[in-house]
Inverse folding.
């Protein structure tokens, strides 16, 4: 029997480890969903295709980035892959098991175990110093008061041209017009990825004075093919 080259064995071991990591992440996510389905919202982590759409346009040399609802790290991984230094990323995660796993996986990233509704009191950066807030929270499952509080906190931290990035399993904005208008915000559909379970639509929320058209005037949403 001819032995396999060391490189081939190393690649095989790496792939097996990756498969094992993904299986563990899926199991942890499913168990979290069983315990608190409204908090976790899905039975599986977000796909890499959705993650790539969520982190698009992050400037690695720009301001800080805040991630809400880090979960098993699907978005965290791709945020860092943009070249953003770990010390400029903060991840909010109130699930203790997820938070511990994030701390193990992502050295140098500050994992914050506080609720998003009061997060501005617990971050390291200054108000106006954040370029993006990337949200994996199930906003659609939250009441209006909670939605309003989370957006208000996010835009307290975001720079004037900063963007709040949110995905939803609906084709419509997860935040209604009444809340957006009360906070001076507009929503824009940025595309849909079918390679996610369930398929997901990505929205950008900005301050109205930044010149973005309201959701109702945005053309038919783009379907992102991967």
């Amino acid at each position: 029997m001819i032995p396999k080259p060391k490189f081939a064995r190393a690649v095989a071991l790496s792939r097996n480890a990756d498969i094992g990591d993904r299986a563990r992440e899926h199991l942890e996510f499913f168990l979290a969903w069983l315990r608190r389905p409204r908090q976790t919202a899905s039975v599986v982590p977000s796909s890499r295709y959705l993650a790539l759409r969520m982190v698009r346009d992050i400037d690695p040399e720009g301001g800080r980035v805040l991630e809400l609802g880090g979960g098993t790290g699907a978005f965290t991984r791709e945020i860092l892959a943009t070249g953003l230094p770990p010390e400029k990323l903060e991840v909010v995660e109130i699930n203790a098991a997820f938070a511990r796993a994030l701390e193990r996986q992502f050295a140098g990233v500050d994992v914050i175990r506080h609720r998003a509704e009061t997060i501005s009191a617990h971050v390291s950066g200054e108000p106006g110093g954040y370029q993006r807030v990337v949200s994996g929270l199930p906003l659609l499952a939250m009441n209006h008061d909670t939605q309003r509080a989370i957006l208000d906190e996010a835009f307290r931290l975001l720079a004037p041209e900063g963007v709040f990035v949110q995905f939803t399993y609906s084709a419509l904005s997860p935040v209604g017009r009444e809340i957006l208008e009360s906070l001076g915000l507009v929503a824009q559909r940025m595309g849909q990825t079918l390679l996610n379970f369930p398929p997901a639509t990505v929205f950008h929320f900005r301050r109205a004075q930044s010149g973005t058209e309201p959701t109702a005037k945005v053309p038919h949403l783009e379907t992102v093919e991967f």
